[in-house]
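Good morning,

Both structures are done.
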Amino acid sequence: DFEKWESRLIQIRSAKLSKSSGQSYDGNVTVTDATGSVTLFTTSVATFANSAFPADSVNITALVSQFNAPQILIRNTTDVQPIQGGGGQGATLVSIREVRNLFSGTKSEISSDWKIKGSVSSDRSGVNIVGQNLYIQDSTAAILVRFNSNHLFDLGDELEIVIKASELSEFNQLLQLNNVPLANAKLIRKNVFVTPREFTIKQILDNGEDLEGQLVLIRNVDLSKSSGSTYSGTVILNDGTGVLDLFTRSQAVFSSSSFPLKASSITGNISQFNNRQLILRNESDVKP
């Protein structure tokens, strides 16, 4: 989408800089993230042309430009910010289950130099989750991460997140890693999708804390609502083994769509707002 972004100020996260010779900004430097590469050009008369660029992962703010081929231009060296901990330098990789097991019932700060790694199982494009939040899942468990600003991570992005000094707490009984600096998250690769695990509603209710945050699939479900026929608000799910709230934000792109009365399957993240609930990623999670 180069023409769409030309001349705009953009940000590229979790990138590495490299050059065929030397390590100064002068000339062409290659910027590479998990999705591809682009040229960072600096004129030889720039005040920072002879400055050395960082060797570690960085976040880059730049203007999208062109000189026959696409390129980006930084305004000054402060546009290139080394990721403090985002690359996981020195941090110990722990499972999400280990992090969840730390919670003792009261808010605390993670003191260990830890990082977690997993795949994003929520979908910001559906707008059924707050822009600062995402669900991340590994082979052991899942958890909600709330960053200190809106993120640009997509469904299926595999991330490493340094969690030292992050707050482990509950929000309306939903366990979360809160106030996580966005710079602490590093994109490893894309399209690493979580496969939903199949459960009945009774199994979800009986094992809610253990399954919280995880992507699940429920089969043969009846849907109903006390008033109205759209997803917005709370829809009641019933698979014959129990009932579960399906909650949809009014801001979700599909909130005004009508739900079917029966679904062969429903996929979503197990969440909680005092009561246990299921959160859709997008409307296609409901299969009539």
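Second structure follows.
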Amino acid sequence: DHAVSADGNTPEKIEILRGPASLLYGSNAIGGVVNIITEEIPDYIPNGIHGEINSGSSSVNKEYNISSDLHFGIDKFSFHTNYFNRGSKNYFDGNGSEVLNSDQFTRGYQFGFAFIPSYGRSGISFKNYYNSYGIPIADNEEEPVKINMKKKEYRFLVESNKINNLINDFSLKVGYQNYEHQEVIRTTGEIGTSFGLKSYSFDLSFKHKPVFNNINGVIGIWYQKQNYNVTGEEAFTPNADYEGLAAYIYEQVKSEKINFQFGARIENNKVFIPASTNSDTYFPADDKNYLSFSGSLGFSFNLTDDISLFSNIANAFRAPSIE
């Protein structure tokens, strides 16, 4: 029912992080991080304008799609925009049978701007995403349901790598995201259940200069506030407000053959639950507070240029959500 709220053509690259570095992204990420890197806020100044326009189709579901990705630079300013539009009918399975209510329509766009002097970068971006898709059904006797998903996102970034002190550079990231999700009965247009999540985030990190020539690392603080609400016949949980505050550190000692990593994160999560009645069950108002510590060690040894041995050990705590 809950599809990924992103499109596959927007990433510039994807990196996989495992071990202590994953704690930079939260205590939830103990198993690793799939980091999708985009150019929403550009990190370079292109010479003039360049980009690409793609179009394609598929026969299995009569899909069409078109997307564009453009970069423009002038002096110390860089601009980036992308757009995508994708639509499809019901698809056919491996036996050649039509899968009912499996159509989809997706559209989105993004604008980003950055000022990039010699000492750093600052920029903002705005992203809009819309996805409407059916939940497949077995036959025409079932009631077809579609999902209408909307997401708006704002990002702000300031960073510098020319501090020339014990702290070599810093990065400040601020974000706001508004996600909405409606489950709609297609035959009547009636909205069965609606979900909403508003998120405010803040991340400030500092990289220090190498210590003893081979110890590099990052320290930082993170804050997030979320407002979660659900209404309708499948509102099985109360609404909730979340607040999280964390401090983290990541250090790396690297030599020609050995790479040792250490990460730690202390995090305080609060959940504020209003009184409500859901599915004939009364939930009294309540506040929850969780203070947790997560730590991770990583070690790798290069036997040759092509063969390495590595090991990670970690312990983490994830604060529960209202669901």
